[in-house]
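Chapter summary example.
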Amino acid sequence: MKKTFEKLEKIRKGLLKPDEPSFVPGQKEKNGSVLMFFCVPSNSKGKKVFRQLTAPRDYFFAKAGGAIEGNCRVTTPDGRVFFSLSFRGDLDGWKKTIETAAVDQNIVLAYVSENELIISDKTSLSLEECVFEFN
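The structure predicted for these 135 residues follows.
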C-alpha cells in the first residue's frame, strides 16, 4: 500500500493530504458516472468550454442525468490544460453529446486509462508526465 501512495504522490507531484482522493480522477470507475477531461485554450475559461460541451443543441442525445464540472485540472508537458467533467444518468447519451460537441467545436477531450492520459488527438501520456491540481 505504501508503494501505491508513493507512486500516486509522484504522479500528483506532492504528498497526499488526508482529505484528497487516493487516486487520480478517472483511474477508478465510479458506479453510475463517467469522468472525462476537456482542453481549455489559454484565452478561454473552463466554465465557458464546459457549457459549449454540455448545452442543449440540435444533437443533444442524453435522455436523463446531468453533467458537472469537476475539481481536477491536468497540465500536460506541452502546456495544454484540461479540466475534468463527469456525467451520470444516460451515460451513452451524455458521452455522444459531449464527443459530438467537441468535434463540432474543435475541443480536445481526454480520459484516464490505467496510468495514461489518452487524448482525442491520438496522443497518449504517462500520468507521471502530467501535473494534477485539485481545487
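To summarize the output: The chain has one domain: 2-134.
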